[in-house]
From TrEMBL:
Comp. bias intervals (Basic and acidic residues): 1-12
Location of region: Disordered: 1-22
Organism: Amycolatopsis pithecellobii
Entry protein name: ATP/GTP-binding protein
Superkingdom assignment: Bacteria
């Protein structure tokens, strides 16, 4: 009998489990969990909230979300590395 794919939707992700692949960062704008995404694993196009430009597939970037969140996908944002590092010096741009 073939295996069924099981959905993990609705199951909370333990924060401790997330820190195994993400680093914790403390900044004036709060506590964050940040994960680096190498270009070889960047398979989709995202829009950076720092500059409002696209991050094309194949470009290395970072994913950040609030540390007090329990891994909600809705709160994760994909940033250019430079935009993430410069976020304290400038405000996020408006989305189109």
């Amino acid at each position: 009998m073939p295996r069924r794919n099981r959905s993990d939707r609705g199951r909370p992700v333990e924060l401790g489990a997330a820190t195994g692949w993400a680093r914790a960062e403390s900044a004036p704008d709060g506590e964050w969990l940040v994960r680096s995404v190498p270009g070889s694993q960047a398979t989709k196009v995202y829009r950076c909230p720092g500059c409002d430009h696209e991050i094309p597939a194949g470009v290395a970037h970072v994913v950040a979300w609030p540390a007090d969140d329990t891994g909600s996908v809705a709160d994760r944002r994909h940033w250019h590395r430079a935009c993430w590092q410069a976020r304290a010096r400038r405000r996020p741009t408006r989305r189109r």
